[in-house]
């Protein structure tokens, strides 16, 4: 049976160098890495992570906990994290806790405590004190995405700031009759994202001296379908309609565009629409948005964790604000004369 010593002899390298080259860990020159991989391929050798984990105490596996895999943001974070882990030679274990309290309890009080992962990424989860204590008891690096986690390193965006930026984009075009589609109460539990974005919208409107009309603030469930239904109700009040809609997510902005078409409204001639996210469909539909680079957030979380793991360092708590970018497309424009 071929072993790592055979690969080392074939490559003319030390066993330690071959181990680092095949595992993707440690500093190895590109030439040595290629020689090790070529020798392993010729001999049909595959590095046993089970054996290496027994020796090093590492599993080469990172746990990723998400509230759902159906929302675009979560799936994009998973994609970014997964790609970064694959490049580093790590596995990913996905824990989709959904809306079932028992599943959430099992993940934090059982699965993660088995220490089958080297680190944990928690996405858009506001953890209880007990859940945080359970995670810290693992003595594994933890990174949170979406909001602050006491005692852990976190990656987030400034939701209030980007909501103001989105609203100011519409105001800057000359819109004063602006509606807002926000998330309903069920989506305000973790880090109060809908409420924070709504506050940013209202602050920008107030600073501009524009009234915030309560009937023009409607709630949906962050889906295209939910926003479509909400926007139909909003836009049914002809002729007293808003000239622009700021949706708290791109999916809800897309639902708004579809609803507007039902009423024969042209985007952006009759109604400007913008969202927040950087959804893949945004480019197809010409949606103006604030791109929060969800895939980049997932990749950054992985790089942060692996940097600590490979160096054997304690990951100190830190709050990192991820950059966002205003992407102006064809869904927003100056309002028609007489509709300001």
From TrEMBL:
SUPFAM superfamilies: lambda repressor-like DNA-binding domains (SSF47413), Periplasmic binding protein-like I (SSF53822). It comes from the Bacteria. It holds the Pfam family LacI. InterPro entries: HTH_LacI, LacI/GalR-like_sensor, Lambda_DNA-bd_dom_sf, Peripla_BP_I. CDD domains: HTH_LacI (cd01392), PBP1_LacI_sugar_binding-like (cd06267). Residues 2-56 form the HTH lacI-type domain. The keyword Methyltransferase does not apply. Keywords: DNA-binding, Transcription, Transcription regulation. One of its GO terms (molecular function) is DNA-binding transcription factor activity. This is LacI family DNA-binding transcriptional regulator. It comes from Paenarthrobacter sp. AMU7.
